[in-house]
Design brief:
heterodimer; A: mainly alpha; 7 helices; B: mainly alpha; 65% helix; elongated
Chain lengths: 181, 111
């Protein structure tokens, strides 16, 4: 499991660089490095479907973020909000980490999941759904209503994005609108 | 121990959201937190020496990893992309109106 630790430390380093670096484009590239490391971590954790999905989604996310920052004035924005805000935020994060650590001690150890529900899925999955990939049998059969709800969220987000980015619908009378992005 | 590293990644994203002033930096913090949560789910379902949850011809089904968190995270990743696109669209429109990404300068409540 040493490779998993190395990948996680790499992700933490990439996230730290992304947070602290001045240049926004470099920051976005660092986030991309963290996301691709996450894809490899999924592969090590025996989740090949997730690795493929994360790879594609990461590249699309990078394209969206670069499209948002390129050709815009981002150099004049300072990144400092005063000592009081920083200290209060750090104290809050410390309290959060403490309680999260207390909660993590109650979880089962790494590598020994409980699998009370999933044991049934693994045993009966092929017989009940006919799918040899158990992840897709869970998505499309055992928890299909869940997937329906998440598809609703997905399409709501897509419609919202289109409605915000559209230029034509918001012009006034006798105004000529140029579509430039 | 490995859960703790995942928690550190989450708190880096939280720090970015709470302290930074740039809208794009805040979006980056959200993306980092999303990575940490997805990774935590998969870590909770991992079994040492387990196999990927795909049935093969000659396979005994004793030592598979948990397929349930994988199914949940698979949809969560795609939804994360859609919500990131929504936030970026809002940020671009804010930039068009205010000519800045600095959240302390975006104060006028003008339709």
């Amino acid at each position: 499991m040493i490779e998993l630790y190395i990948l996680l430390l790499f992700m933490i380093a990439a996230a730290f660089i992304a947070v602290q670096i001045k240049d926004l484009l470099s920051s976005i590239i660092a986030v991309g490095a963290a996301g691709l490391a996450l894809s490899v971590a999924f592969l090590i954790l025996k989740a090949p479907d997730l690795a493929i999905t994360q790879l594609v989604v990461e590249i699309l996310c990078l394209i969206i973020l670069i499209r948002a920052t390129v050709k815009r004035d981002t150099a004049s924005t300072k990144d400092f909000r005063g000592f009081l805000t920083t200290i209060v935020s750090l104290v809050f994060i410390g309290v959060f980490l403490f309680f999260a650590y207390l909660a993590l001690k109650e979880l089962p150890d790494f590598g020994k999941p409980i699998m009370r529900v999933a044991a049934n899925f693994i045993e009966m999955g092929q017989a009940k759904t006919g799918a040899s990939n158990l992840v897709s049998s869970v998505i499309l059969d055992f928890r299909a209503y869940d997937t329906l709800g998440e598809a609703t969220v997905l399409f709501t987000a897509v419609i919202g994005t289109l409605a915000i980015l559209r230029r034509i619908g918001r012009k006034k009378k006798d105004e000529v609108v140029k579509e430039n992005d | 121990m490995i859960y703790l590293l995942c928690l550190v990644l989450f708190s880096i994203g939280l720090y970015c959201i709470l302290v930074k002033r740039n809208l794009i930096k805040i979006i980056i913090g959200l993306v980092i937190m999303e990575y940490a949560v997805n990774l935590a789910f998969i870590l909770f379902g991992y079994r040492l020496g387990g196999r990927a949850p795909i049935l093969a011809q000659d396979q005994t089904i004793k030592n598979m990893v948990d397929p349930l968190p994988q199914a949940l995270v698979l949809t969560a990743i795609v939804i994360g992309l859609a919500t990131t696109a929504l936030i970026v669209a809002i940020a671009v429109r804010i930039y068009d109106r205010y000519k800045t990404f600095d959240i302390t300068k975006i104060r006028r409540l003008k339709g």
